[in-house]
Design goal:
Low-confidence stretches of chain A: none
Largest interface: A-B, 43 and 41 residues
Structural class of chain B: alpha/beta
CATH class of one domain in chain B: Alpha Beta
Number of strands of chain A: 6
Order of helices and strands of chain B: HHHHHHHHEEHEEEEHEHH
CATH topology of one domain in chain B: Beta Polymerase, domain 2
CATH topology of chain A: Cytochrome-c3 Hydrogenase, chain B
Mean pLDDT of chain B: 71
CATH architecture of one domain in chain B: 2-Layer Sandwich
Strand order of the largest sheet of chain B: 1-2-5-4-3
Low-confidence stretches of chain B: 1-75
Structural class of chain A: mainly alpha
Strand content of chain A: 5-15%
CATH superfamily of one domain in chain B: NADH:ubiquinone oxidoreductase Nqo5 subunit
Radius of gyration of chain A: 22 Å
Order of helices and strands of chain A: EEEHHHHHHHHHHHEEEHHHH
Radius of gyration of chain B: 27 Å
Distance between the termini of chain A: 54 Å
Oligomer: heterodimer
Chain lengths: ~375, ~270
């Protein structure tokens, strides 16, 4: 047995390490197989499916009203926008008119949901990078928003807050005043987060020039939502294909210049401010009237198919639904989950970066594994 | 401390439960006795699976055809599935948008245009898909540069072409939306569009995983949501929805008894 190895020569093979599925910074059960050259990431393979519950298959065996409940379980950090996307798709198939008041309240709920989702994102992302204080602050403010949801629909996480054709109930009395108060609180707190992070030297060094992606490449790779806008592409379903009542409000679409992790942070912070702006406008102009349209007793859309997208907090959430016009459940129920599409870009983002940046990059694309795996 | 405490509670309620739990055990004994008796002491997993073979002597002639009907499953309970989507042509009073007219001018006679609730779809033959897709992406007046979604629909009753592949395209500069549809036979392969839209990579993996449709030219065609060693493709219409079998649906009480008996067997 001969071993020929000089004292100065070291093994320089690539090292394969496994990150997850049980890892605090993978935000759920995400598994990454990283190929490392020293501290640099050469390549990454994303392994998903640990939370696959077959929601698409299950929905093809439930009736149209029962599916609202299943959509809660996809992006469980932003259940209200999932409800909205599904209900609007079915309304499009039914060609159903939704009362104006219901559309306004839906807009308010989805913007509150965007606030809550972005706060969770900011807290966990900052904690991954090491700023634990921000996590505590963000969850404190998110709690207030969850209280609003609890007062409206009785649930704090899986809301089941919308129905095909409108809403299950009207707003409770005095709710709008509380929403205004919380919008003021959130606006004030965003300034605090910015004081903690925006000029923070550690934050800048950990996020700037990390995971840069150009606008053209981001579009080709299927990026959507805030990450796409941070790459300089002004694409927002709320503006481009207005749904609910978004066409009636004034708001801006923040876009980034460099497409790095820092820009994605700035874009989402600005979106928080824009969301409170939309909520205030919607409360100011909230019309009177019913909240549920003329819904047929048995929902059974005519045979046909449609794709409808909304802007969920994570990006473009699309539903492709085929109705055969005969059975009481959809013939084909397909979800286009934004986290799934954004996660696909992760190997491209982490290539060439340090292992520590992988944590920052998982945080920056804002994934929820319940939605990735369905 | 927990170890001795744990077996007690099951044994205490078991006397009242035994009359209920006992009958299935002797009835099941004649037919599958060797299998269960051998499996129960060795592995608890096998004992757990014991209730799934139904109590054979009770109604073997009734059970068998039912199980077969469930396996073939063209029409479990609902009316038979339609042979295919309606794909209605656009009504006369709806003007075709510019990208449809441009596509028809560039590829005369290639696609069938359909329209439903405001959505435009073009049905393209599979062998022209890449050509049409490249033209749609690269022509400045259409510029469908974003592949929003890619999925499939299973129409098992439709004669040779069982699957619809549905490509939801979006044009970021023009804000157009268009669906391309490709009809595909059961064992046929579709051309991969990952060369046109890299975003389609995971979508095609998911379609392969869920429907078993293979894509020629895909860089890395593996299962994505289901485990690597999984058998079958869950989104196909002939794939069953749930595991415990028809007994749970037909007679939940009987199913519950069998399950409880299996659990008690575990403790012994």
């Amino acid at each position: 047995m001969q071993i020929e190895r000089s004292a100065t020569q070291f093994d320089t093979d690539e090292l394969v390490i496994n990150m997850g599925p049980q890892h605090p910074s993978t935000h759920g059960v995400l598994r990454l197989v990283l190929r490392l050259d020293g501290e640099r990431v050469v390549d990454a393979d994303v392994v998903i499916g640990y939370l696959h519950r077959g929601i698409e298959k299950l929905s093809e065996n439930r009736d149209w009203t029962q599916i609202v409940l299943l959509t809660d379980r996809m992006d469980y950090v932003a259940a209200a926008t999932n409800n909205l996307g599904y209900c609007e798709t079915v309304e499009k198939l039914l060609q159903l008119e939704v009362p104006r008041r219901a559309r306004y309240i839906r807009t308010i709920l989805s913007e509150l949901q965007r606030l809550a989702s972005h706060l969770v994102w900011l807290g966990t992302h900052a904690m991954d990078i090491g700023a634990v204080t921000v996590f505590l602050y963000c969850l404190r403010e998110r709690e207030l928003i969850l209280d609003l949801f609890e007062e409206y629909c009785g649930a704090r996480l899986t809301y089941n807050s919308m129905r095909v054709g409108g809403l299950p109930i009207d707003l409770p009395p005095g709710w709008d005043r509380k929403v205004r108060e919380i919008c003021d609180i959130v606006d004030a707190k965003v300034v605090e987060y910015e004081q903690l992070l925006t000029q923070n030297r550690i934050w800048l060094e950990r996020t700037r020039e990390v995971g840069v992606i150009s606008g053209v490449e981001a579009v080709a790779m299927g990026f959507c939502g805030p990450p796409l806008r941070a790459s300089g592409v002004a694409r927002d379903v709320r503006k481009d294909e207005p749904y609910a009542a978004y066409a009636e409000f004034a708001f801006d679409i923040p876009i980034g210049a460099r497409g790095d992790t820092y820009d994605r942070y700035l874009v989402r912070l600005e979106e928080i401010r824009q969301s409170t702006r939309i909520v205030r406008q919607a409360l100011d102009g909230l019309p009177e009237g019913p909240v549920l349209g003329k819904v047929p007793r048995l929902i059974k859309p005519p045979a046909g198919e449609t794709y409808h997208a909304i802007e969920a907090p994570k990006g473009e959430l699309g539903f492709f639904i085929v109705s055969d016009g005969k059975s009481i459940s959809p013939y084909r129920f397909r979800v286009r989950p934004p986290s799934f599409c954004n996660l696909q870009v992760l190997p491209r983002l982490v290539r060439g970066h340090l292992v520590a940046d992988v944590v920052a990059l998982i945080g920056t694309i804002d994934i929820v594994l319940g939605e990735v795996d369905r | 401390m927990d170890q001795p405490a744990a077996p007690k509670p099951p044994s205490a309620p078991s006397p009242p439960a035994e009359p209920a739990g006992a009958p299935p055990a002797p009835t099941a004994a004649p037919a599958p006795a060797p299998a269960t008796a051998a499996a129960a002491p060795s592995t608890p997993v096998a004992a757990d699976a014991a209730p799934t073979p139904r109590p054979a002597p009770a109604r073997p002639p009734a059970a068998r055809p039912e199980a077969k009907a469930g396996a073939a499953r063209p029409e479990p309970k609902a009316p038979p599935p339609p042979p295919g989507p309606p794909d209605p042509p656009p009504p006369a009073d709806v003007a075709a948008p510019s990208f449809i007219t441009a596509l028809q001018a560039a590829f005369p006679g290639v696609g069938t245009v359909t329209y439903w609730v405001g959505d435009w779809t073009v049905i393209v033959p599979a062998d022209r898909l890449i050509e049409v897709g490249r033209w749609l992406r690269d022509t400045s007046e259409t510029a469908f540069d974003y592949c929003a979604d890619l999925t499939a629909v299973d129409w098992p009753m439709r004669a040779p072409e069982r699957f619809d592949l549905v490509y939801c395209l979006y044009s970021v500069p023009h804000r157009f939306r268009l669906r391309l549809k490709v009809r595909l036979a059961d064992q046929a392969e579709a051309p991969s569009v990952t060369g046109l839209w890299p975003a389609a990579n995971w979508f095609e993996r998911e379609v392969f995983d869920m429907f078993g449709i293979r894509f020629t030219g895909h860089p890395d065609l593996r299962r994505i949501l289901m485990p690597e060693e999984w058998q079958g493709h869950p989104q196909r219409k002939d794939y069953p929805l749930e595991g415990p079998g028809e007994l749970l649906l037909e007679d939940p009480q009987e199913w519950l008894k069998l399950r409880n008996a299996a659990r008690e067997a575990d403790f012994d």
